[in-house]
Structure prediction request, 390 residues.
Amino acid sequence: MARIGIIAEFNPLHLGHKYLIDEAKKQGEVVCAVSSNFVQRGDTAIFEKRIRTQMALNCGADLVLEMPVCYSMSTAQSFALCGVSALTVAGCDTLMFGSEAGNINVLLKTAEILISDKFSQILSDKLKSGITFAKARQEAAEECGAPKDVLQGANNNLAIEYIIAAKGLGAEMTFKTVKRQGVGHDSGIEDNGFASASLIREKLYSGDFQFAKKYMPKEAFNLISEAEISDITRLETAILASLRTKTLDDFKNLPDISEGVENKLFSSIRVATSLNEVYNNVKSKRYTLARIRRMVLSAFLGIDNSFFMQKPEYVRVLGFNKAGEEIISQRRKISEIPLVLKATEVKQLSEKAQKMFELESKASDLYALSLKKPAVCGLEYKANLIKTEC
Prediction:
């Protein structure tokens, strides 16, 4: 039986995600690597990670693993490296993902191009002209033979990074893709029975649960009626206060810092009175809003470059069913990266592993303040594993 790995945020889990899990389930066991409480766009996840874990298990996943905050809120490359590493720990032989292309050969070809010396040289030359990184990357890839506009799709980009990460790790995986169903990533419209996670979040924030009900599987939607919704604006003053205590050296050590942007970030924080002011003052052709938001939140959470583009020190289990329990029992004995079930197990690991867990704990404690009814500290130590029978 195949063991299929899926990397996702499930922010929240919608019908497109359910379609992907269903397709994977037809082929074997399903393992999901799920983002922590802070996500790649530089924001809080709308629901706490254990709620999203339960969503995944209810919708067919057998085992759910955590992507720690220092990876879940990182670049596509670092995000992919962690996700693929977690899935290899679980013994996944297949990696499945949605993509706009819907053609695995197109994605494989583009991945090979992006790791070539020719591409790197052309990209470097184009960046010197002052165009945006995204445009330079697309043009360089096309000059090397990539299909036109393949890097325009957000899911294509992540899929390609998953392939590159797997090859870099030497993971013996088969890659499979399903064509993204319905609307595009971050689309503001509904189409063909599907809605994007960003649109569903927008409706949930406005209180329109009936809209969400239409575009989320019932197994996931049934969990949110009593769930607390996170809103990062509740943390704004705390974030600004924390940023004002940072030194320039603190910003120099953030992940994904380059070209002296730490100076611009530091000076902007000294005069800004809102997060949007910070973002808009620093944003440029080379730095997207998502990248700036990640830098700001990394500074707030105390995340430095220690883990950037490094394999995770451990992989933590969030939830499982009976099939998932068998996977854990098998893989705990042979995995090179420790597979952790309890917080107390981290104390037996390396100093760097303990630092990674401390960052996760701190992030969860601060995330707790983004809820309408703030939660207490210590959830990473107190929360139980999520177990389902089927």
In short: Residues 351-367 form the longest helix (17 residues). The CA atoms of residues 71 and 79 lie 5 Å apart.
